[in-house]
Design goal:
- By secondary structure, the protein is α+β, with helices and mostly antiparallel strands.
- 63% of the residues lie in helices and 9% in strands.
- The chain is built from 33 helices and eleven strands.
- Helix 4 (47-74) crosses helix 15, helix 13 (245-261) packs antiparallel against helix 14 (270-281) and helix 27 (658-669) crosses helix 30.
- It is flat.
- The two termini are 43 Å apart.
């Protein structure tokens, strides 16, 4: 039960995901007949009126966005028009799949508004105003229309019931709101059942409603009602039927009434039936009524649903779009192979042979099969973002499209190839990892030499084997032709070997062709491995820039020899990075004089990465720098927190320090004391420190890591201040080293190591002595370093959910929790640190990349 309680949001989203899939199947099965009728109707419709309906749908969507915007203005908040249109589209899509979808969907996709620093209370209140106003304007339009219809007796009892139910709903909502504002019966009942809502309701009552903005919201909603009626007019005109104002108003009101009280699927089915019934009551035949209804529903439901669905897919950095081309490539490869191995549809083949000769059909089958085999392999390299793989997939998709049409008019398979071409073209900017040009040249040269050698070998073989083994008297042209055919695995029906020797001869050409083509393929898709050595001359310039512009505790590690340095031309800044595979991981922010310099060098580094087939991560970026990366259209992910102890308030007295005080007292009573050694250190002291470090590495079974911290290095330690814990005999049992920290008033240390034997609390004693020493030297704070994957208390998206789940549940990450728990003893202030990246897909590679980067 605890697991479900802690992860209920993830579980609910998984359930909704499965529900979406199930409902998609339901759509196809339930609406199969309707969709077929829509296709027939649209095929015979007036194109100009149809286009007018599509334009009106776009106006409808824009007006919905305007109504959302006015709803937020009603509560005193301004939101960008484009943003609210996108939110409407997303909520419209998800509302189809939720119970009471139009209302329940309003609780989703609030993060866009939260980023604008709009309080969550106002977000929900504005959404409620939007929903209530929509129902209210239906009543405003419906009342006169329904009174007229009742007089004319053109309404059924079901429609009257729907109107009454809607009126009761509006009345209940109004009374409920009045009770909440005046703290009446409904308010007291809600607080008794859900006491946590008292604060929310208090905030709700404090919101001032702008009456002018609400009137504009009502007017906008009324405009939406008239647009809906216009859709019904256009649907009727599209099919060439006469239009009546009474029919349009009553038909539209009926559809909205059923939509308002529909508990599921936005009235799907119920609206079609009710509107069809209403239209037949006004003299339309059943077929005509169904046709008008289906065209109307195309404008009001299916087209907005399609546009809403695309709002989820065709967005920048969409993870689905990054994977879809690879999936389609793999599927097309399978389809190509199956299509060639299964018999062609005879009737299509007969038609095709009237236009092209049979040998073209055979060649097309061969090429489709070959493309299928290579597409299967290419799919894997597309996932790596290889530009060459993109070109190859695009070329093979084009060949497949043409091949399917010229081998048996297999337009179904050709359509899949067409979808792949479109997806590849749309995502073309995602594929920029370069292939290794040296290997490309080597592969092409090797393939050409192999082809020439095989042609010579095959030509001589065919020429001399001729009649005895193939019953053909080959000339030189035929020998070359048949050699090339077998090199590319194309077997001619005229070539019939007799005997094992002839078959082995052909097989040897096939093997040579397979090895040559495979090697060529491998060299073409082999990614460029970026290699560059540490430049000592750049180090001098970097050290000067750190002295000049440094402001971080990590600046010291940016000039470590494990990193490469990047300088932008004409820019007084640099960044430090390390390469793992096709990723360049930058340590924190660039060292720069200000925000503009920082943006310039990040842009320059992006260009550098593209030129060298790399993608970038920025590791442990502080929260105050996020605005710069956001401006550069990069994404961020909370990756952990950095602990900083305020030395002004650090004392060993008091209840909160009891545990640390006890550890210190116990250590002192056992004869341990702290000592500080200033540089340069003696060889004897360095040997003692090495002995402690070696023992620590052995019994903890840890390995040296670097990138954002140092390793044990005699060359570095001899010029640093060291604090040790020693016993009565002068043996060093624990130590730490002080390193430069460019943050004003802040000090920090790097290595913290101790021997296996020693009293409990030895490290707490060391840290307490370190804090007191730094305080005596005038420092205001001490940076305790980074606790990865901690601090993700509220998971806003899937990446953060995954990190939080790993941190809290997975056993292999337990040491990260222990690291935070240890630092928490000293009551530090925690500061968020982020990973900066370009695409969600990159996060799949993040763990492996960081593992490689932090190794020495």
């Amino acid at each position: 039960m605890l697991f479900f309680k802690e992860n209920k949001r993830i579980i609910l989203q998984a359930i909704f995901g499965l529900l979406f899939i199930g409902l998609a199947v339901f759509f196809i099965r339930h609406e199969k007949t309707e969709l077929a009728q829509v296709k027939v109707v649209l095929g015979t419709a007036n194109i100009l009126w149809l286009l007018a309906g599509i334009v009106m749908t776009c106006i409808y969507i824009a007006t919905q966005g305007l109504m959302y915007s006015n709803s937020f203005r009603t509560v005193g908040e301004k939101v960008p028009f484009v943003m609210v249109v996108k939110v409407f589209l997303k909520r419209n899509f998800i509302g189809v799949f939720l119970p009471a979808g139009g209302v329940s969907s309003l609780g989703f996709f609030t993060r866009e508004f939260e980023r604008k620093e709009i309080p969550l209370t106002k977000i929900h209140f504005a959404s409620s105003i939007y929903a209530f106003t929509g129902i209210l304007t239906v009543m405003i339009v419906a009342i006169p229309a329904l009174i007229w219809a009742l007089i004319r007796r053109s309404l059924s009892s079901n429609q009257v019931f729907s109107f009454v139910a809607l009126f009761v709903l509006v009345l209940v909502v109004v009374l409920l709101f009045i009770s909440l504002v005046r703290q009446g019966l409904a308010y007291r009942l809600i607080i008794r059942i859900w006491p946590d809502l008292e604060k929310f309701l208090a905030e709700l009552r404090s919101i001032h409603i702008r009456k002018k903005a609400w009137i504009q919201t009502i007017l906008t909603s009324l405009l939406i009602e008239f647009i809906g009626m216009a859709h019904l007019v256009i649907a009727t005109k599209t099919l060439g039927f006469p239009v009546s104002v009474e029919v349009v108003v009553i038909g539209y009101i009926t559809s909205v009434l059923f939509l308002s009280i529909s508990p599921f699927m936005r009235g799907l089915g119920a609206i079609e039936l009710s509107m069809t019934y209403v239209l037949t009551r006004f003299g339309f035949s059943t077929i005509d009524a169904i046709s008008i209804t289906l065209v109307y529903r195309f404008f009001e439901f299916w087209l907005p649903l399609l546009i809403s669905g695309l709002s989820f897919v065709f967005v920048r950095n969409n993870l689905i779009l990054r994977i879809v081309p690879a999936i389609l490539t793999f599927l097309l490869g399978i389809v190509n192979i199956i299509s060639v191995l299964t018999p062609a549809i005879h009737s299509r083949l007969e038609v095709l042979l009237q236009f092209i000769p049979l040998y073209i059909v055979d060649v097309s089958n061969y090429f489709v099969l070959m493309m299928g085999l290579f597409l299967l392999v290419t799919a894997a390299f597309l996932l790596k973002g290889l530009r060459t793989a993109w070109y190859m997939a695009l070329g093979m998709a084009l060949f497949s499209l043409i091949g399917h049409l010229t081998k048996a008019i297999d337009y179904e398979e050709a359509l899949l190839a067409g979808f792949l071409i479109i997806s590849l073209f749309y995502t073309r900017r995602q594929y920029f990892v370069r292939s290794n040009p040296r290997f490309e040249q080597f592969g092409i040269t090797t393939a050409l030499i192999s082809a020439v050698a095989v042609v010579i070998y095959g030509t001589i073989g065919f020429y001399f084997l001729d009649k005895k083994y193939f019953n053909i008297d080959f000339d030189v042209r035929q020998s070359v032709e048949y050699t090339l055919q077998n090199f590319f695995f194309f077997r001619s029906e005229h070539l019939n070997p007799s005997g094992s020797f002839a078959r082995d001869f052909l097989f040897s050409i096939n093997i040579a062709g397979f090895l040559s083509l495979s090697f060529l393929f491998f060299t073409l898709v082999r990614p460029l491995i970026y290699r560059r050595k540490f430049d000592e001359t750049e180090l001098v310039e970097a050290l000067e820039l750190v002295k000049k512009h440094g402001k971080s505790g990590l600046d010291y590690f940016k000039t470590y020899s494990d990193k490469l340095l990047f300088f932008a031309a004409g820019n007084d800044s640099f960044l430090a990075y390390r390469v793992a595979g096709n990723y360049a991981v930058v340590l924190e922010d660039p060292v720069s004089s200000g925000a503009e310099e920082m943006k310039n060098i990040i842009r320059a580094f992006d260009l550098f990465c593209v030129d060298n087939g790399l993608k970038s991560f920025y590791y442990r970026v502080p929260e105050e720098s996020l605005a710069i990366y956001d401006e550069l259209k990069k994404k961020h992910l909370l990756f952990g927190q950095e602990a900083v102890v305020d030395l002004k308030d650090f004392v060993l007295e008091g209840r909160s320090r009891k545990g640390i005080r006890n550890s210190c007292n116990k250590a002192r009573e056992s004869g341990y004391f702290s000592k500080v050694y200033l540089p340069p250190l003696s060889e004897d002291m360095l040997d003692k420190l090495k002995a402690v470090s070696d023992e620590w590495l052995e019994y903890t079974e840890y390995k040296e890591i670097n990138f954002s911290q140092g390793t044990f290095s005699i060359g570095e330690l001899k010029d640093q201040t060291i604090m040790t814990i020693e016993n009565a005999e002068g043996k060093v049992v624990a130590f730490l080293n002080l390193i430069p920290d460019n943050a004003p008033g802040e000090g920090t240390c790097d290595l913290i190591r101790k021997v296996k034997e020693g009293p409990n609390g030895l490290i707490e004693f060391l840290m307490a002595e370190f804090f007191l020493y730094m305080k005596s030297r005038g420092f205001q704070s001490v940076n305790l370093g980074f606790a990865p994957m901690s601090g993700i208390e509220k998971s806003n998206d899937l990446p953060e959910m995954s990190l939080r789940f790993a941190y809290e549940k997975i056993r292999s990450f337990a040491h990260y929790r222990g690291l935070r728990d240890f630092k928490e003893k000293f009551a530090p202030v925690w500061y968020n640190r982020y990973i900066i990246y370009d695409h969600h897909y990159d996060l799949f590679n993040l763990p492996a990349v960081l593992r490689k980067v932090i190794k020495p």
